[in-house]
UniProtKB/TrEMBL annotation:
NCBIfam families: IPP_isom_2 (TIGR02151)
HAMAP family in UniProt: Idi_2
Subunit structure: Homooctamer. Dimer of tetramers.
GO terms classed as biological process: isoprenoid biosynthetic process
Species assigned in the record: Natronoglomus mannanivorans
Lineage summary: Archaea, Methanobacteriati, Methanobacteriota, Stenosarchaea group, Halobacteria
Binding site residues for Mg(2+): 166
Function in brief: Involved in the biosynthesis of isoprenoids. Catalyzes the 1,3-allylic rearrangement of the homoallylic substrate isopentenyl (IPP) to its allylic isomer, dimethylallyl diphosphate (DMAPP).
InterPro entries associated with the record: Aldolase_TIM (IPR013785), FMN-dep_DH (IPR000262), IPdP_isomerase (IPR011179)
Protein name listed in UniProt: Isopentenyl-diphosphate delta-isomerase
Keywords, in A-Z order: Cytoplasm, Flavoprotein, FMN, Isomerase, Isoprene biosynthesis, Magnesium, Metal-binding, NADP
A Pfam family: FMN_dh
Gene Ontology annotations for the cellular component aspect, listed alphabetically: cytoplasm
Compartment annotation: Cytoplasm
């Protein structure tokens, strides 16, 4: 096991992240969804209320292809948020991930641990996935990751890639050597499926192929166009006088592969793709599925509702589901499988981006 951080360092960082997301401008544009238009079907010949939004994810039936993305955990103050999110996931039949479990693995604190364990306590039947960083796999062995699985009774484990965030953090871990091999080892030996996810900068087609070859069970692209962790860490760096990191964070605030592009490219390499990164509506989820995703994930939009309680989270999920269902209705899609075959048009900068990517491969 690695040398543990102090409880104060970990707790302060978790608190900083939540506060900055709630109080500062940490949103970027440019997901590419604005350039994706689903082709309207004027004669859908289906009943809207009979549309089936369910999907199967790792043999677990979800009522809708919506994922509450990994956000928080690791501080007693976040227990309330995770409780509300998990209750809502249980009630609506969707998936949910927890934030990085590093603190839970390395710090001996029952109140802190509860910020993670609460999710299974209140959501015994929900699809829940855990979360560890790729950089930590260089220090953990498979048994350590199994402890993270056991901590929440996880149905899957996410391994997050956040090296731009680490590069901006004054205390960041910037050694990325050997991570792919470590991911392959965990994917081969872990007791539950492994999802590899970015944290807001996207996954290119080439990287998606490397992950597919490594045997991961799903890829969550988490592309550019939503919450910017580079921007969040820039605010943190400014607060502690780390001026160079602050400037780097600002410079790379909108860095990455747009979510729509990343979804298309990853879906060419892997058949289980989750599209996240600036997904803000059920229509965005529908577009992502038409581009090849299995589901769409959201994080920040759930944060404020979680602070108000599970009923508010449920309201948001039901709104997203109705928006998705409406998009399916007007594309003639009676099921998610139908939506995956729906016609769409790519316009604007996203079209140019994809064309340039294709040209660069040919060169």
């Amino acid at each position: 096991m690695p040398e543990p951080e102090t409880e104060t360092e970990t707790s302060d960082r978790k608190d900083d992240h939540i506060r900055i997301i709630e109080e500062e401008d940490v949103e970027t544009t440019g997901t590419g969804f604005e350039d994706i238009e689903l082709v309207h079907e004027a004669l859908p010949e289906i009943h809207r209320d009979e549309i089936d939004t369910s999907i199967s994810l790792f043999d677990h039936e979800l009522a809708a292809p919506i994922v509450i993305e990994s956000m928080t955990g690791g501080h007693p103050n976040t227990t309330k948020l995770n409780r509300a999110l998990a209750i809502a996931a249980e009630e609506t039949g969707i998936a949910m991930g927890v934030g990085s479990q590093r603190a839970g693995l390395e710090l001996d604190d029952e109140a802190l641990l509860e910020s993670y364990t609460v999710v299974r306590d209140v959501a015994p039947d929900a699809f829940l996935y855990g979360n560890v960083g790729a950089a930590q796999l260089l220090e953990y062995d498979v048994n350590d990751v199994e402890r993270a699985v056991e901590m929440i009774g996880a149905d899957a484990m996410a391994i997050h890639l956040n090296f731009l965030q680490e590069a901006v953090q004054p205390e960041g871990d910037v050694d990325a050597r050997g991570c792919l091999e470590a991911i392959e080892t965990v994917a081969d030996a872990l007791s539950v499926p492994v999802i590899v996810k970015e944290t807001g900068n996207g996954i290119s087609g080439d990287t998606a192929q490397r992950l597919a070859d490594a045997g991961v069970d799903a890829i969550d692209v988490a592309g550019k166009g939503g919450t910017t962790w580079s921007g969040i860490e820039s605010y943190r760096a400014a607060a502690v006088g780390a001026n160079r990191q602050e400037q780097v964070g600002r410079l790379f605030r909108a860095w990455g592969v747009p979510t729509a592009v990343s979804t298309l490219e990853a879906a060419d390499a892997h058949d289980a793709v989750i599209a996240s990164g600036g997904v803000r509506s059920g229509l965005d989820v529908a577009k992502a599925i038409a581009l090849g995703a299995r589901a769409g994930g959201l994080a920040k939009p759930f944060l404020a509702p979680a602070g108000k309680g599970s009923e508010t989270v449920v309201d948001l999920i039901e709104q997203l589901r109705l928006e998705l269902q409406t998009a399916m209705f007007v594309t003639g899609s009676a099921s998610i499988a139908d939506l995956q075959s729906a016609e769409y048009v790519v316009l604007g900068r996203t079209k140019e981006y994809l064309e340039e990517r294709e040209s660069s491969r040919e060169r």
